[in-house]
Amino acid sequence: MSVMTPSGKLGLRIAAPVILIGLGVWLWFANGSSDPKPATSSGSAASSLPASRKVDPSSKNARSGVVSDKAAATGKLHADWKRVSDSGITGAALLDARREIAARAIEELGPGPELEKFLAFLKEQGQGDLVGWMIREGVADFFKGEMKEQGLQWFAGLADEKIQEKMGYLAGRNMDAKEIEPWIKRFTDIHVQSSVLTGYCSEYAKNDPSMAVREFLRMKPGSVDMTGLGMVMGAAPAGSDFVGLSGMVPDDGKSLAKNARKALLGAWAKSEPQKAGEFVLANTSTVHADQMGVVIGGWATKDVSSALDWVEALPEGDHRDYGMAALAQARVKDDPAWSRAAIDAIQNAKIRESATKDLNKPR
Q1: What is the DSSP secondary structure assignment for residue 315, as one 8-state letter?
Q2: pLDDT tens figures, 29-78
Q3: Are 168 and 196 in contact (CB under 8 A)?
Q4: Mean pLDDT of the chain
Q5: CA nearest to 59, candidates 173, 146, 183, 168
Q6: Residue 342, H or E segment
Q7: What distance in Å separates the CA atoms of residue 209 and residue 242, rounded to the nearest whole number?
Q8: Fewest CB within a 10 Å sphere: which of 38, 52, 189, 200?
């Protein structure tokens, strides 16, 4: 169950742990924080996102720009972080409390040097995952609406290029056709350039994937590789010209091109898995046989029975072997004996060995 707390309106949802854990976190904030926000209950496992939290990065505090207020807020955030760290709570409750502090940092500090310093502090604390969560679930809203210009200028001035790279995709998604090229040229780090370009073209691909790919290739600086093209291809919606899109990618002899086609076939398999499989079979000179595993793996998540019937009807060879390996992975939880028998029947020794290793990996 997900519950909205009174403090926010956007983003940053966390699934709750149990009532007692939630009560414990509430009591901690009640005793030590001026902004108590009780966790809520859902009975979810500790490995899931624990607690219910929404962030409003457009709040009055975030827009005020009052340095003294932000300085005081920063001091309170650090004090609360220390109190949580010294409290003895662990697991889901600890993550809950830390995300509460992270959410407040976004709301109270907004895009500016104080938030940048707080993100750097979290990285120093070994909280890279929490920084990533803040960027995905809250900082993304800095690049929208009335905060967009301020958010983009803050993003451009960040000293930490790793954090800048993580934000680049989200910033690019919210840029328009007039903005994107000047922004790409503004950066010197190729990873940030790639991230911004990929974000823009991935969003573009939702409506016009063919043009998005052309724009990616046209705007890509010479020093930026094709890594982002896979994300653009993967954003192609059902009904796209997947055959035409695949024709825009070099043959699978080049690893980055192969990854881009892999993402494309994965997207295609969501809506037309049989056509995607037939395409792999019909284009052996450009598409490697192992791409059949991508198609069948996606197909099996929706209709494992149909996928199995189709693969079993294939003639013996690498395409069939890769398809059976993908089916073995898909069915191992429900029928491990069948999965092992399927792998044992694979003809190609290298494919069989690789499939066996994959099946034995911890889950």
Answers
A1: P
A2: 444 443 333 333 333 322 333 344 556 655 545 444 434 588 899 999 99
A3: yes
A4: 84
A5: 146
A6: helix 336-344
A7: 9
A8: 189
**Own/partner pairs, 61-65, CB within 8 angstroms, 24+ separation:** 61/107, 61/108, 61/109, 61/110, 62/106, 62/107, 62/108, 62/109, 62/110, 62/111, 62/147, 63/110, 63/147, 64/110, 65/110, 65/112
Spatial contact of 29 and 37, defined as CB atoms under 8 Å apart? yes
* Cα 303 from Cα 181, distance rounded (Å): 42
What is the C-alpha to C-alpha distance for residues 63 and 151, in angstroms, rounded to an integer? 11
What is the pLDDT, as a whole number, of residue 25? 40
Tokens of 50: 């624990």
Compute the distance between CA of residue 8 and CA of residue 306 in angstroms, rounded to an integer.
45
Which pLDDT score, from 0 to 100, does residue 162 have? 93
Contact 24, 40 (CB under 8 A): no
Given a contact cutoff of 8 angstroms between Cβ atoms, the answer to whether 322 and 351 are in contact is yes
Q: In terms of pLDDT, which residue wins out, 38 or 305?
A: 305
Alpha-carbon distance 312 to 294, whole Å?
16
What are the distances in angstroms from CA 328 to CA 12, 293, 298, 348, 355?
Answer: 36, 10, 13, 15, 8
C-alpha to C-alpha distance for 138 and 117, rounded to whole angstroms: 16
Give the torsion through C-alpha atoms of 189, 118, 126, 57, to 10 deg.
Answer: -80
List the structure tokens of 20. 């007692």
**110 conformational bin, left if phi > 0, alpha if psi -120 to 50, beta if neither:** left
Amino acid (1-letter code) at residue 325:
A
Residues 100 and 129 sit within 8 Å (Cβ to Cβ):
no
183-225 confidence digits (pLDDT tens): 999 999 999 999 999 999 999 999 999 999 999 999 999 989 8
Q: Are 191 and 165 in contact (CB under 8 A)?
A: yes
Q: What is the structure's pLDDT at 249?
A: 85
- The structure's pTM equals 0.75
Please report how many Cα atoms fall inside a 13 Å half-sphere around the Cα of residue 283, on the Cβ side. 22
